[in-house]
Structures are given as C-alpha cells and as structure tokens.
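Worked problem 6 (solution included).
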Amino acid sequence: MGTSCLESSPLLNDLKVTIHKTSMVFPSKETQKKSLFLSNIDKVVNFDVETVHFFAPNKDFPQEVAERFKTALEDALVVYDFLGGRLKLNIETKRLEMDCNAKGAGFVVASSEFKLCEIGDLVYPNPAFAQLVHKSKDFLKPDDQPLCVAQLTTFKCGGFAIGFTTSHTTFDGLSFKIFLDNLAALAAKKPLAVIPCHDRHLLAARSPPRVTFPHPELIKLDNLHTGMESGVFEASKEELHFKVFQLTSHNILTLKEKAKGSSSTNVRATGFNVITAHLWRCKALSAVPYDPTRSSAILYAVDIRSRLNPPLPKSFAGNAVVAAYATAKCEELEKGDLARLVEMVAEGGARISDEYAKSVIDWGEVHDGFPHGDVLVSSWWRLGFEEVEYPWGRPIYCCPLVYYRKDIILVFPPYGGGHGINIIVALPPNEMNKFESLFYMFLTSV
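Solution. The predicted structure is:
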C-alpha cells in the first residue's frame, strides 16, 4: 500500500444535535476544600482541549450509558477533586491555582438525528463535530468556568459519542489517558486502574531559580509585538484548508531506511523522529514566499517523568512535558539529506535532561512566555485513548476538534488500529498545495 491523502467527501454541516439535559455533576463524596499548586508548565497551557470519543452500538447498553457515565464522573470528581474546582489567581503569590471547591463539572445529554455511519469519515476533521462538545455553558452561573464539561450524544443506530472539554491545566495527554482508564474502571464499578499522584510541587521552580541553558524554543510575552510571529497556540485568522495525510507502516519503514542509508553515523531513526523530520521539512518549505535564508524551528513535546532525578511517578496527574526543538535554515531543509534532519530532531529530544527540564521550569518563574516555533508536531499516536476499556466497549475512534492553527500538525493512530498514522494539516490554500507536493516528493525521492 502506498501513501494517500483523504479528500474531503461532502461533509455534513449540521449533525442535527438536540440538547436534552444540561446539569452540573458534583463529587459523590465530600471532598477537602483546598488550593492546588500549578507548575510553570501548567500555567503555559491555560486553554481548553476538546476531544470526541466515538463508540459503536452495544445492545447491553441501549439507554443505560448516560446514567452509568454520569455516576462514574461523580466518583471521578472525588479522586480528581481539582476537576470539579475552578482556576483562581492567588492575590498574595500572583500565581494561578486550582481552587478545589467542589463546584462541579458540566454534564450534557444530547442526541443526533443521524446514524453514526451517516456522519462521514471520523478521521476527517469535520467542523460539525463541534456539536458533540458543549460550548455555550448556558446552564452555568455568569462567569463560571468549569475545568471539565462532558457531553454524551447518542445516534439513531445506538452508537454514541462522548465529548470532553477540559482545561489543559488539568492534564497532559498521558495523564488524561490515565484519567480515562480510571473513569472506565469506575463506570465498571471496579477499583481504580491507577492511583493518580496530585503533588504538582514536584515540578516547582528552584529557589532561587537557575536558568542554566539558553532557551530559543521559548518566547517572552513582551517580545510578541516586536516583529516576531505569535506563539504556536494562537488560532489563525487566515482561511485554512484541512487535509489528512496517511503514512502506512511501509512508508514509515522506508523513511527509516532512507535516513539510515544516507548516514555514516548511527542516527536514531525512530518512527517518530523520521516522521517529525519529514513534516518539518514540508512545513518549512511550504511557506509563501519561500526564503532559503529563513531559519525554521520545529517543536515537539517530550515527557519528562522518567528524565527527572528523582523520576516523577508515572501516575503524575498534571502537565509533565516540555518542548524539544531543532532549528535549521530552509536551504538546509531543502537540500540536506534526511539523516541530518532526523539527527537534529533526535538531538532535540536528547537535550531534555533533568537539568534542562528544571532550567525550562525556572525560566517560567523568571519570565512570562511560552513555546515558539515554525511548527509544533503534536503526537497522539501512542497515547492509547482507543485502548480504554469501558463497560460498553473501546472507542472506535478518538480525535480533537478542528485546530484552527496553521503551525500545529496533529499525528494520530489510524481508524480501526494498525501501524500506520494519520496526519492532520491546516494551511492556507496556496501553502497547502506546496505542502502536499513536497510531502510526496520527499517521500518518494531517493
């Protein structure tokens, strides 16, 4: 099988979703009122993440899913007490904190007039999927912003979708996966799959802070309006086209062999590294107008749990990732061999030592800012959301809502399993045409 690009078949503009009930859910047991410290990594990601998890019909759960899911969510708010709390600014420390006040999470029950098989290709980022995640929060008090809202939408066939809106300050991808595992266990009336670690002081800055490395991957807020581009987390105001590119396991193996074959050194040609190098080159060279002297920076998240000394618990519930980076001139990206680009990507990950991660955290204590680069590769490839065992079965697919961000490329596992990947790219039309041409040209060239 070769590569392919999923063209957008006619997308449904309206899933005809009806909201039947909106409410707040509260912890099933009394929880302790307290403030939860947020690290400098947490505070950088103060925005919502919206994900949709699709499930096939299950004859044993025709009507029961909503109630079972709601009960599980109530129990989860005991284990994850911060999830039913609110963000607040500590006046004394001037730091953002989580107020664990048991004000609850949002819960929405809805239905669609379509069958699951009628709403189109789940892999393709249909903007109408936004109807599967509750946005209006019209059932809340004015100015009340819960950290979690869940919507369960049933389809006419009996299939359904669970849409989560969670503040990124609550979880990174790995800790959200553990949360889902625990939510599934609670729904099955089983013990927790993993006991989460809530001590975010484990990622507190040193006193005094010591920034021991240069950090070109981070930008201060006061530099955003001095001719530099804005950060990768900012939504684009341009018209963007979306495409889903696919790489088979054979394509990935070909990239690995190409990287190893053109190198005299033992380059670390992992699947992630070669895919990231390939996407970096295509994204950088698709910029209009093309400038060979322009410097391009690639960013990608690295989990620091095992890199710290002592290591963080694998069950750490919070954000424990920092941005790895590599930089090169566009001319080098165009004419250099793949092995060198893969090597630069690998060096970016290898750079993240215990001291480097602590330097990043301390930088956040001294400056207000966030990661900045030409492109951020956000990988959901091996997070395993589709492997969560709910009483009603595993999800058939999980995805975020459409990202209107041209500098973020999303990498996903394929629909139905397998060893290939899906890549979601959003670019202005002229840049998308260049990206697509480069994607296949560099993949097939010797």
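Discussion: The chain has a mean pLDDT of 90.
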